[in-house]
Design a protein that fits this description.
Layout: H1 3-20, H2 26-32, H3 37-40, H4 42-58, H5 67-86, H6 91-102, H7 105-150, H8 154-174, H9 187-191, H10 196-216, H11 219-225, H12 231-258, H13 260-281, H14 285-299, H15 301-311, H16 319-348, H17 353-367, H18 378-394
Helix pairs in contact: 1-7, 1-8, 4-6, 4-16, 5-6, 5-7, 5-8, 7-8, 7-12, 7-18, 10-15, 10-16, 10-17, 12-13, 12-14, 12-15, 12-18, 13-14, 13-15, 13-17, 15-16, 16-17
Length: 395
């Protein structure tokens, strides 16, 4: 594997740590800036909304710029934004510091995945995606633990900035100069928008991500208020959550390779079951340790399920364009979930955020039974699914 691929994976680690590291310190931020937990949740929601809006457009605006320069610019912005966050004197400044890197967030993924695929195909893509998984396993728990260790909320942002700086150095040293790509005609890509299957999958993706993040965004608050865990224990739970997620991704990759629809439904049923159990056993320490492990195993599969389910339903030549729409759906879903969970948390208590997830997952499960005439043949679909499924197995 080329060193450049690992440098890209390190960049992915830094970016995801910055995006989702805020989840572990939302209660701390809420207390520090004297805002409600749902208002603090907008630090994740605003990031996600910005990514959703910029995703379909940001790449087309930068087609004439050297790709290495863009990658380094993105990582430098993440370094800077984390430092601004650490020195924020009020919640508004912190919010602006969060939105700044989100504008360029999808640009990193578009370029990184393209480079990885060109160099090493599906294996290269799976290696870059490994950075995302490791950020969940290590980055988010570490930034949460840093706050508890130093008794200072700024420690989380200083650590995220340091991680992004290391990633920047890696990109600067190991990514070769890559000239801009010529702009490609979008006629064939736009034609896929006529597919009702695509829109069904995008809506399902949005609902799935909203369900996942309606509860996950407030997991720290849930463990703190309902399970009565302290900061160190919560950090361990987040580490367990992420570690089991890596195992879950691997198992789901195998399941998706056999039957996409069945695996998708299985994911939805399992996540509903875990959250119902968490609602009734949330006040008990040992059961919640077990449930958090299974929750993490199932939760992390959501990105993979939505990606494969959508990719296998469209022509191969449209995948890059569809991926930008999928990124938007992911982030709109994340934002919507964080908003709904925060709303319910304020008016009814954090305990009831789980029912927001359960309701949305049930709707998504019902949508999986909606069918349309296929717009591509079974052979074409199998050819498209094979490389995606292979990437899943490698992850």
């Amino acid at each position: 594997m080329k060193t450049s691929i690992y440098a890209l994976a390190l960049g992915a680690f830094g970016i995801i740590t910055t995006e989702f590291g805020i989840v572990g310190i939302l209660p701390t931020i809420s207390r520090e800036f004297d805002v409600s937990i749902d208002t603090a949740g907008w630090l994740l929601s605003a990031f996600a909304i910005t990514v959703a809006v910029s995703s379909p457009f940001i790449t087309s605006f930068t087609t004439k710029i050297n790709r290495k320069l863009l990658l380094c610019m993105v990582m430098s912005i993440f370094v800077l934004s984390n430092l601004i966050s650490a020195f924020s004197t009020n919640f508004t400044v912190l919010m602006i510091a969060r939105i700044l890197p989100a504008i360029l967030h999808p640009l990193f993924w578009n370029i990184a995945i393209a480079i990885a695929f060109k160099e090493r195909g599906a294996k290269g893509v799976s290696t870059v995606m490994l950075g995302l998984s490791l950020a969940t396993v290590l980055g988010i728990p570490l930034t949460t633990y840093a706050v508890d260790l130093f008794q200072n909320w700024q420690a989380s942002f200083f650590l995220s900035s340091a991680i992004s700086l290391i990633a920047f150095i890696g990109l600067l040293l190991f990514i070769p100069t890559i000239p801009p790509n010529p702009e490609i005609s979008g006629k064939n890509k736009m034609a896929v928008l006529k597919s009702p299957i695509l829109w069904l999958n995008l809506v399902s993706t949005l609902a799935t991500l909203a369900a996942m993040f309606a509860s996950y965004t407030y997991l720290t608050a849930y463990l703190e208020e309902i399970t009565k865990m302290d900061g160190a224990q919560i950090s361990m739970m987040l580490l367990l959550f992420g570690g089991m997620g890596t195992l879950g991704n691997w198992l789901m990759g195998l399941a998706l390779n056999r039957n996409v629809l069945l695996a998708s439904r299985m994911f939805l049923v399992l996540l509903v079951a875990v959250q119902i159990l968490a609602y009734y056993f949330g006040g008990y320490y040992i059961p919640m340790v077990i449930l958090v492990s299974f929750w993490g195993m199932v939760h992390t599969c959501g990105f993979l399920v939505c990606n494969v389910r959508t990719s296998q339903s469209v022509p191969h030549h449209s995948l890059e364009f569809v991926n930008s729409l999928l990124t938007s759906s992911f982030n709109i879903g994340i934002s919507l979930g964080a908003f709904l969970g925060g709303l319910v948390s304020v008016y009814y208590g954090v305990h009831y955020t789980l029912w927001v997830s359960i309701l949305l997952l049930t709707v998504t499960f019902l949508l999986s039974f909606v069918t349309f005439p296929k717009n591509i043949t079974e052979n074409e679909e199998a050819k498209q699914l094979k490389p995606v499924a292979s990437a899943c197995e490698h992850s």
